[in-house]
Design goal:
The chain folds into 3 domains: about 170 residues, 2-Layer Sandwich (Beta-Lactamase), CATH 3.30.450.240; about 110 residues; about 100 residues, Arc Repressor Mutant, subunit A (Orthogonal Bundle). The chain is built from 18 helices and 5 strands. Strands 2-1-5-4-3 form a 5-stranded antiparallel β-sheet, covered by helices on one side. A hairpin with a 2-residue loop joins strand 4 and strand 5. Helix 1 runs antiparallel to helix 5 and helix 15 packs across helix 17. The radius of gyration is 26 Å and the shape is elongated.
């Protein structure tokens, strides 16, 4: 579980695809980028022969057939593969020449070129930082992996053009292209809160386009579902949906997916997930607030039990207090301080009907004292907390 969390965080921070494999090179977990798809090689087949020669005892780089790169990090009896990435700017003309020489069909070339341009460009310095951070997180050993040249740790796996061509069957590549386009449309609709558009998409949107992670189609569909849950959640958060609520909802979806036992229910779960997050965004956009203002509102609502100050909120979102006050007032017609008090009093009304004393409610909501709480409550509600409590027993 610890390794899973570490790899998830490194994937999020670096944007690199990650495959975590066991000692027999069976996939344990894969972390895929939202930005691009990539038909990977059969690393299991290529790496097994290297075990007998002890070539996998330390970090190694691998060059793919189209000059994309990977690095392999061994940890105890397991292996973590990062990539693809590139350490140099991809030259369009040389790639086109390679594809023409190897008789790639025109539609294959276009899609591969498009995907290659999206592969992360990473410097050796950044790679060193990723490896050092990974090593420390997994072993608590502060070790440097200085490599001044790519070639000094290069492992020859003979990843061939033919392997890519085999994986890119003509029918599959059309499905790949359609799936990429449809999924991007889906994420745009989630970000826009377009509930109508989501409802009009066909189930083709939810077909997997990435390299198969498991020979069992049913399990592979579940893998893709979890990946899609993550993508639509991130799209919703970027549009201003409360991150805590979004993550909790996604976690529930993943737990429910584990119980699903038919392809029909898997597809329905995907559609439901997309609709759920799209509706969340739609509700936010109805108030015409910016994504930042929505996130500030959610932050306030999630911290009502704390003695919130404007400075604390400004520091949390890395903006100045003056900008926070001005932008919040312009969008909501509320002063930040007044908005916080208003929300606290709304919550206080609920707490007062739950047998809590006035003093307990005041303390739990972070008011300086009961007198301050009573004064604020009366200004907004029109009666004292005690009278309100008696009238709403």
């Amino acid at each position: 579980m610890e390794t899973l969390k570490i790899l998830q965080s490194i994937h999020t921070l670096s944007g690199l695809n990650i495959m975590w494999m066991d000692e027999n090179f069976h996939l344990i977990k894969s972390f895929q980028s939202n930005s691009f798809s990539w038909v990977t090689y059969d690393f299991s087949k290529h790496l097994r022969p290297k075990l007998d020669t002890n070539q996998l005892d330390e970090l190694k780089f691998v060059t793919g057939a189209l000059n994309e790169s990977y690095f392999i990090y061994p940890i105890e009896s397991e292996y973590i593969i990062f990539g693809p990435f590139t350490t140099t700017i991809i030259n369009d003309s040389s790639l086109k020449t390679v594809m023409e020489i190897n008789d790639f069909q025109a539609q294959h070339r276009d899609i591969l070129m498009q995907q290659l341009k999206l592969i992360p460009l990473v410097s050796l310095y950044d790679l060193h930082a990723v490896v050092q951070h990974l090593h420390y997180c997994l072993t608590r050993e502060d070790k440097s992996f200085f490599f001044h040249s790519y070639n000094e740790r290069l492992l020859d796996l003979d990843l061939s053009i033919e392997e890519i061509k085999i994986n890119l069957d003509q029918d599959d590549i059309h499905d790949l292209s359609d799936s990429i386009r449809l999924e991007r449309d889906l994420l745009k609709m989630v970000s826009a809160g377009d509930v109508t558009g989501i409802n009009q998409l066909t189930t083709k949107t939810y077909r997997p386009y990435f390299a198969l992670l498991n020979e069992d189609t049913f399990i592979n569909e579940k893998y893709y579902s979890i990946l899609l849950f993550e993508k639509v959640m991130q799209a919703a958060i970027s549009a201003g949906v409360d991150p805590i609520h979004a993550h909790l909802s996604r976690n529930e979806m993943i737990v429910e997916m584990d119980q699903v036992n038919s392809l029909e229910h898997i597809i329905k779960a995907r559609i439901d997930a997309a609709l759920f997050f799209t509706k969340q965004v739609s509700e936010l956009k109805a108030n015409n607030y910016s994504a930042l203002t929505n996130q500030i509102i959610h932050y306030i609502e999630n911290n009502l039990y704390q003695p919130l100050k404007v400075k604390d909120i400004a520091d949390h979102f890395a903006i100045s207090e003056s900008n926070l006050r001005t932008n919040f007032m312009n969008e909501t017609n509320w002063k930040v301080k007044d908005f916080i008090i208003q929300r606290k009093i709304e919550l206080a009304k609920k707490l007062l009907t739950s047998r809590k004393s006035v003093a307990e409610v005041a303390k739990s909501l972070g008011f300086f004292d009961t007198s301050h709480f009573t004064k604020s409550f009366k200004q907004i509600v029109g009666s004292t907390p005690k009278r309100y409590q008696i009238e709403h027993k």
